[in-house]
Amino acid sequence: MKNIGLSLSIAIFMASCTNGENAQANGGASTETQALADISPVDRKPFETTAIASFDEPWAMTFLPDGRMLVSEKAGKLQLVDAEGKKTEISGVPEVAYGGQGGFGDIVLAPDFATSNMVYLSWAEEGEDDTRGAVVGRAKLVLSGQNRR
């Protein structure tokens, strides 16, 4: 029993010595690590952000090949947004059952979007007996001309 206690004590002692040697060998690394640890996760920003537009309950976003964005709003709007933040509402989106967790959901470009202009959408729709259900559909996105739909 004494041998186990002695062995455990030696192991702990060796580990603490090893950690101290590693900390000294790394020099400033531990200081840098501590400095990063002292920064609140909220304040850590590995990149800069710039607000370009605001939305009513945005839910999903996808980028178009030309750099513009499609942003769905939970209440049932689909917005086309350019790099300067100009928003244009897309017409012809499905009627959504808005409330609770229900509403307009995701929007994803089809793999062949460059040639087909097809997008996949998800939303909640009214069902029978005061129920709602999730729906997934696809549509052709028309962005030419004045009537974007």
Key structural traits:
single chain; alpha+beta; four-stranded antiparallel sheet; three-stranded antiparallel sheet; 149 residues
Query: Which bin fits the share of residues in helices?
Result: 25-40%
Total strand count, please? Answer: 7
Distance between the termini: 80 Å
Indicate the low-confidence ranges by residue numbers: 18-25
Strand order of the largest sheet: 1-2-3-4
Binned strand content: 25-35%
Could you give the order of the helices and strands? HHEEEEEHEE
Largest sheet, in brief, is: 4 strands, antiparallel
Question: How many helices?
Answer: 3
Q: What is the average of the pLDDT values?
A: 83
Radius of gyration: 27 Å
Structural class: alpha+beta
3D shape: extended
Walk me through the topology.
Layout (H helix, E strand, L loop, with lengths): L1 H25 L1 H11 L19 E6 L5 E5 L3 E5 L5 E4 L13 E6 L3 H4 L1 E9 L5 E9 L9
Antiparallel strand pairs: 1-2, 2-3, 3-4, 5-6, 6-7
Protein model, in words:
27% of the residues lie in helices and 30% in strands. The protein has 149 residues and is an alpha+beta fold. A four-stranded antiparallel sheet has the order 1-2-3-4, with no helix packed on it. Strands 5-6-7 form a three-stranded antiparallel sheet. It is extended, with a radius of gyration of 27 Å.
